Amino acid sequence: AGCEKEPASYMWIYILLGNMLRGIGETPITPLGISYLDDFAKEENVPVYVACLHTVAMMGPMFGFLLGSLCAKLYVDVGFVDPGSITITPQDSRWVGAWWLGFLIGGATNFLCAIPFCFLPKSLKKPEEANKDKTSHGLLENTGATRNKLSPEKTKPRKWSVMLKGKLLGNRMYFTFLCCSLLQFSSFIGFVTYKPKYMEQQYGQSTSKSNFLIGVTSLPPVGLGIFLGGLIMKKYKMSIIGAAKFSLIMSLLSYAVSLLHFFVGCDNHTVAGMTVSYE
């Protein structure tokens, strides 16, 4: 009778709020970091610097999978129960790893990494040579001059709906890039999410080993590809059109290689009463 009752734990709410706060804190790093690199670096070096930023960002999930692999080897109640009294192994379907330990280690590491940001100066002086080369700086100057000419009565705050419709969603290049990014990240997240479970079910691997293999084999090539893409863009000094063509060619090649996944797999398990008869 106790097994028929629904679980009454609300721990998932704390995990949801924790991930939400983490996302709020981590999100500004990428856009502000890219804008900082674009403003204070030479134009020909920006692709390499941005590639390095994204490559380091890909290293985080890789170490996260390795940490998850380590935590999955430990029993969920590690530190509270005697390890000798545990009669099941990580290969057992009833095994639950110390999933909470990764949150503590990751949270403490994030907190320590955030401390140096508190010592950054409020404003940085822009190099004079960069001021002449950056188109964005010229646009900012023109915008500032136009703003100064306007009287205070004519300067009104714009609504978010007007900004989205006129500046963001009305820009065909930005909107196309947004749709492409949405499709790419959706496929990548699905791949990373379900591949460990597939390896557990089809190949009989433990959760710990599945996470370890995903972290070692899937994410490092992505980081390497991002870094090589930045080097190629710097070497050939690609324009926006050239970068778009380069992205299109690489996406088509990636799609062609990904089709090979349809020809790789395992047969279904033989389950009495489902795939085979009881005899």
TrEMBL record:
Query: Where in the sequence is the signal peptide annotated?
Result: none
This one is known as: Solute carrier organic anion transporter family member
SUPFAM superfamilies assigned to the protein according to its UniProt record, in alphabetical order? MFS general substrate transporter (SSF103473)
Q: Which InterPro entries match?
A: MFS_trans_sf, OATP
Quote the subcellular location field of this record: Cell membrane; Membrane
Q: Which GO biological process entries does UniProt record here?
A: monoatomic ion transport; sodium-independent organic anion transport
Q: What is its main location?
A: membrane
Q: Which UniProt keywords apply?
A: Disulfide bond, Ion transport, Membrane, Transmembrane, Transmembrane helix, Transport
Cellular component, GO, one term: basolateral plasma membrane
Which species does the entry assign this protein to? Cettia cetti
Provide the organism lineage as a comma list: Eukaryota, Metazoa, Chordata, Craniata, Vertebrata
- Whether Iron counts among this entry's keywords is no
Membrane-spanning regions, if any? 48-76, 96-120, 173-192, 212-232, 244-264
Say which family it is in.
Belongs to the organo anion transporter (TC 2.A.60) family.
